[in-house]
Structures
1.
Amino acid sequence: MSTTPNVPYRLEFSVEVPGTPEQVWHAIATARGMSAWFLPTEMEEREGGSLHFTMGPEMGSDGHVTGWDPPRRLVYEEDWAALMGKDPDALSPLTSEFLVVARSGGTCVVRVTSSGFGTGAAWESEFWDEMGSGWIPFFDNLRLYLSHFPGQEATQLEVTASHPGDAETLWSTLHDALGLGDEGAMVEVRGATGTVERVGERQTLVRLTAPVPGMLSVFAFGEGDGKAMAGVRAYLFSADAADYVRREEPAWQAWLQGLIVPA
């Protein structure tokens, strides 16, 4: 017998971004737009349409669109039970709602609410805590995308490497090895140049200008069991991006795996 899901979980965020409601809608409610600042996304762009977010090799989240009111409101549900390998009867769907509110001066506020019901298990609150801290940096991506690359299609580069130890030590090592500075600093990161746009908790976002324009997110997080993960995710916007990714992804992978992290 399974427990009825009756323990509520809720996350709310809002971000002010440049652009018209139509430009913002393209970024949050199309596969091409979502893939340019979030995760690689497949979406049938209509109410009832299917949805899939790719979260890495052999991992993803499936869902479907339940609310579709362009350019104001998007709602979709994901199966977080399947994502976590849990009993589907024990959890409600995970529902995310995006609201776009136009402001004067050519900006919009995007309000995002994610909610669901579980049974109160310890892993559930951990899932929501991690989801909250994981979501926040993506809103910096969204703001940067709409500021500099609105409507453009991204080619993504993503690599991660696991190391023994804690996330703080790994982040400090990664940050120093790449020479990541404070917000506003001009940096060169393994042959790419750009400006530090945002410094978060164990995460830095760089707007790249050369050799390929785009956004580069560098991050580290704890995996548990005495391990931590270092990662790089880039969204690149040019005709040369695919060739650049083919060349640079293996080089980034080798570099991340070769980091010497103090014990």
2.
Amino acid sequence: MHAHPDTLDMVATLKSRGEPFALATVVRTVSVTAAKAGAKAVIRPDGTITEGWIGGGCARAAVLKAARESIADGRPRLVSIQPKDLLEEHGVVAGQEKDGVKFANNMCPSQGSMDVFVEPVLPKPSLVIFGASPVAVALADIAPRFGYRVVVCAPSDDQKLFAAADQRIEGFALPVAGEGQRYVVVSTQGRGDEAALRSALSIDAEHIGFVGSSRKMAALRESLLESGTPPERFNRLKGPAGLDLGAVTPEEIALSILAEILMIRRNNQRAATITTA
């Protein structure tokens, strides 16, 4: 059995939009089950099936739970749905995970077994870099190796400093809302600090870091508050940006900033998994 064309169309559509989802595929069935091997379903972060079909309600709850968890932590899962007597034969209980397989109880009258592979399909997180300082250039250089989509916000004359960027924005006019996760670093370092910081504080982002001293950030805060920026927006700002690694060179500072973003990103994923569990 092959995936229905509509399911594959939905996969392509969501990927092009940069929207997160999970693809559930029935990889094995034993005895009588409603869905057969090869059946697929597209599952959204809220646990709804947008397209496709993977069987009745007896199996669906376990698969939807696995899909929500996969989208939250970015890891695939194999769910084995079996009748209670077979679970006992394997020495496991419903809800238990063993050797990378999550087991669930099939309470359908058919008493069949079904293994479902759940794979998260997540958009790349964006690293939004304001400025063209040496730290900004170093960040844009190393970020793609860690799976980030790089967005460079800098004056047109400075764009040539960046060898490659997924998106280039002249100046600091970044859209307030964006698809997927956005991690923002303001690294103007004396060239348009206030304008860049005002723009960064106005957008939706997982994290906003400022490359500069605490004294510089305090001065900018006072200036921006006087010009009408709401004080609560500064609670989102981390400065100086980066983990305290004793970094000195632009490359080392960029590494410390990326390490901090990685720590925040993974901690958020763990928290999301606990919430969906």
3.
Amino acid sequence: MAFELKQNLKLSQQLIMTPQLQQAIKLLQLSRLELVDTINQEMEENPLLEEAALDEGNEEEVRPIGEDDVQVIENQDVKVIDRTEELTGEGDGREEFDWSNYLEDYGPVGVSYDRKDAESPVWDNIVTESKSLTSHLMWQMKLSPLTEEEMRVGSQIIGNLDQNGYLCATIQEIAILEKVTEEFTEAVLKKVQEFDPAGVGARDLKECLLIQARMLGVKNPVVETIIKDHLKDLELKNYIHIARKLKIPLREVEIAVLLISNMEPKPGSMYSEERVQSIIPDVYVVKSGDGYKIILNDDGLPRLRISNFYKEVMAGVGSHGDHDAEENGKKYIRDKVQSATWLIKSIQQRQKTIYKVAESIVKFQKDFFDLGINFLKPLVLRDVADDVEMHESTISRVVTNKYMHSPRGIFEMKYFFGSSIQRTSGETIASKSVKEEIKQLVGKEDSKKPYSDCEIVDLLKQKGIDIARRTVAKYREMMGILPSSKRKKYF
């Protein structure tokens, strides 16, 4: 079989993402905090970018941006693009420009929002640091009359507690590590288990509850027996079965269960080191008459501009007759200006796209903002994409990790999208509204006789919502609602 080389001409279409398009897509899907970090990183890598002070804004009056306008401050003039389009990344950005009078500053897209009002946080009321479980136990151990060796083993025990206060390591492992006997380690553990919070240092739930019962001074023997031998029946609320096994009246079991239910199964959770991060909304929806206004939150975003220092440097390049230095200097600054220009335009386009998507969401979900969650309409990405004339993937990137502050509360922009469920009348209802209906039914039920999933199905049918029992069970589990057998309260 003979082999030979041939040349073939082949035409094909191929999608090539330019660096500018990749940057635009990346900025679009970033959260607010990630955007600030990205801007700060770009400012470190690009010396021509710098942050303008708040009092260094343009003195020239700029007309308000129209619904389909984009503000681009170039050569210190306002240039209006007739139509907002998605960034394509086409071209290399090497258009001719006068660098000496280039981009001076850029303002926020839309209306800026100044949060100097009564709703601003009072910094005096913010706790800067919370005490951890480890530090709380170590503080107690240092105040206890323990020997140096006991302190060493106790520190090892405290260091092996999980976030709920349970001991992760075994007595044998700690004894080998500290080169002491298991009996000595067990004795030190007993002393640690006397520390606050009650139940800390336990190896399982049974031991945790027994420690709390002892520290509470509970003298009821039924409590200890239930904890030791009937935790499974206690979980299933099978109190009658416990009473039969212990051969005691049901009333005594109920009294013992009432004491146990007031104990803490996770004693270390109150000292959790997880910090709750405040959500900074990207968009504010403000009630205005019968409608709503969309306000972009530009507070905290750096205001970028081209550094004047490098303009002066460029003006001095070549003054000593060094032609190569002049060309290299111009090329360097030109490349950095192009990079800075595209970054600023990408940020502007990102803000404008978020504005348009938020405006579309408010238009589709106006009944929700007026009347509440029961009036949330089914909405998919295609609906908003067709409305703003953008691709679905762009809408998906916009609503990811973006938050909206509204009169109804703060919601992730993804919240307003959801599947639909057919009503018996032929209309559709959002799945989130069905979940809210289930939540309200469970909240109003008789705690001694809670609704089963089948009963919830029947109640929903009376409201025109026809769904299967397994769908009710799925929604209930998604909301963290226990089944009826575990919601039942006997006393």
4.
Amino acid sequence: MTAGTLRDRNVVLATLVAALGYFVDIFDLLLFALVRVRSLKDLLGKEIAAAQEDLLSRAKFADAESMERAKAALEADILQRNGILLDNYLQTTGLVLGGLAWGILADRLGRLQMLFGSIVVYSVANILNAFVADVPADGAWAWLHAVGLGSAFNQYAVLRFVAGFGLAGELGAGITLVSELVRKEQRGFATTMVATVGIMGAVCAYFVTELVSDWRNAYLIGGMLGLALLFLRVGVVESGMFSRVKQAHGSGRGAFWLLGWPWARARRFLALILLGVPIWYCVGILVKYCDAIGLSMGIPKDEAPRPGLAIMWCYVGLAAGDLASGLLSQLLRSRRRALLAFHVLTAAAIIAYFTVPPAHPGAFYAICVAIGFGCGYWAVFVTTTAEQFGTNLRATATTSAPNFVRWSAAGSAALWHVFERIFQGDPEAGAGAAGEAKWRAAALLGAILVPVAMLAAMSLRESFGSSLDWTEAADGTRTEGPGEGTSARA
């Protein structure tokens, strides 16, 4: 086998493993969103029933229809509040902390070790999600009450954090490895393939959760898929760039603090995070909570959009958008122009989301596809992140930046809540009495985030076709390496 043939085989195998790894990553990442309503109704059924009884005892309704609408709105509020806690806060906090940990370790120990270490963590966490249960206060496991894990809901919450921590390492390590193995002219095609295949994990997850009636079994399937992925590690090679830096005992490997100094490098890292924030505003709020927003826009309860179906259609759009944005960046030979073009598409889709007449709720799903397509610049975003930093910091930046973007879902949710209270006007109005506040608050948030993202994209240097074989010192200066596109046996 010639050196060129061996190199091509290594690149293909690494790209395949990274793509399938990201597929499972997205599958498991979206599982909670897809089973959110079913799982929380199961775990919080008593709380929901008690709150509805309290509402009926305090309020008077003109007719049965208004009473049912108030009960539905109250249930949606409870599911929204707890869903945001588990997903937008706990899981995304796990993502950002895991992004830091896995990224630093990938720059210190190697891309492959962290790529597969993260798989073990999130796979085990998802399997354990299937077994959460209230613990009897007088049984052998009664001690769990002393540490706050006596209830199934609290166990669920902790495991979503742990799963997020594990999921954080998959994309960054995979993209970094592929970027360093592929020739610079073909880099965009390879990373686009990884992102496009990976995004389809959400579509697969939707059909699995639809076919599997018990939400617990969906978690078992997700966890088993992750463990099965470990067998593909055989034959995957480490990045030659990283191996040379490691053997040379290069300084600053995985030093996260370097991303905050000097200001030029810190500004670069911050700009990358800001340009990706609209993606998780769209997915984490507009799509995941389209049922609550739809009710706020006046769509009847029996015609309100289904979050699971909306997520599936959004990710169909995301897969198409990832492919299109990656190809566009190659055609234009520019990452920045491709990013800006898709920001414009995202803004147009958000406007359509809030202007579709409530009389036609079915059009929500078409808008979800459009939102996903506009947000499909994720592939270009992660590729750009890998291209903006030296080999000694690349995995740290490429793993942490996407997870800071995912973490922004927590900040977006908090701002959404603040704006909702402002539009609501009367915080004492009672649960479910938000009226149009939910959708108005979400619309205002989008009007702020997208322009900021566009400014951030314009501030970055163009990185298309740039060499990745370089390291950067603490003062921001860079040292060029001998060349790229080589690999080392793992």
